[in-house]
Design a protein that fits this description.
Length: 253
């Protein structure tokens, strides 16, 4: 009997170890793709960006007054400013179709917008932070907490499964051969067994998509992708921009 008990204990410990190890490996994989590619590039982070779109339930959207809509957008901005500890210049654009707050501070900028879209009301936060390190994980956690707090305060229900995230990190590179750098990053991705790697030539650089199986995925030419980076040479220098699941941002050349 004692022998069987020992075997059961050993089995349970083994399974527990495998589960913990698997979770740790996944967490490391998810958090390190961007950071490790930054290391491969030898570049310096200049900014992080996060775009979050939240869809409000149909019944709620119909009943939300313009006053509540504006209040929610302003509260989301105040929560974000408090988290980032920055003051901002604010301009507001308002029409029958949308309400939008544009803001710009010393280290943060972006907009918070509420508009009707396909019989739904969608609130979008487009946030940029000037920083010297990848702060996307912390930003995402804080923004999710802010959305829940502000929506709960105003008794608004939203669809958890319809929150869309687009993230990016912008990295300044030295005066390098961008083709060689692109090849080096692709070698890293292949070493990690990343799938669906596809590179296209763009003006003054390269754009590469891939499927790491670590982020929210989207369809791409019949397959899947959840990772996208671009290496490009601008008038202001050479940059690497890494995004998930796809780069949803424009940069002036």
């Amino acid at each position: 009997m004692k022998k069987y008990t020992k075997l059961i204990v050993v089995a349970l410990l083994t399974v527990t170890f495998l589960i913990i190890n698997s979770n740790l490996s996944y967490a490391k994989k998810e958090s390190n793709y961007i950071n490790e590619i930054i290391q491969v590039s030898g570049g310096k982070v200049e900014e992080c960006g996060l775009k979050v779109s939240t869809t409000i339930n149909n019944d709620e959207a119909i009943n939300i007054s313009s006053e509540i809509e504006e209040k929610v957008c302003l509260q989301l901005l105040e929560e974000y400013k408090s988290y980032m500890n920055d003051k901002c210049d604010v301009t507001i654009q308002k029409s029958d179709l949308a309400y939008c707050i544009n803001f710009e501070g010393s280290n943060i900028s972006g907009y918070i917008e509420s508009k009707n879209c396909d019989a739904h009301k969608v609130i979008t936060m487009n946030l940029l932070r000037k920083t010297e390190k990848n702060e996307l994980s912390g930003m995402k956690v804080e923004i999710n907490q802010n959305i829940k707090k502000v929506f709960d305060d105003n008794n608004i229900e939203y669809m958890d499964n319809k929150i869309k995230y687009f993230n990016y990190v912008k990295v300044k590179l030295s005066d390098i051969n961008i083709s060689n750098m692109n090849d080096e990053i692709i070698r890293y991705l292949k070493k990690q067994k990343v799938k669906n790697i596809d590179t296209v030539k763009i003006n003054n650089g390269f754009s590469t998509s891939a499927y790491t199986e670590s982020y929210e995925r989207i369809s791409n030419s019949g397959g899947w992708m959840d990772f996208n980076y671009m290496i490009n040479r601008y008038f202001s220098g050479t940059y690497l921009v890494i995004g998930t699941p796809v780069l949803d941002v424009d940069f002036e050349q």
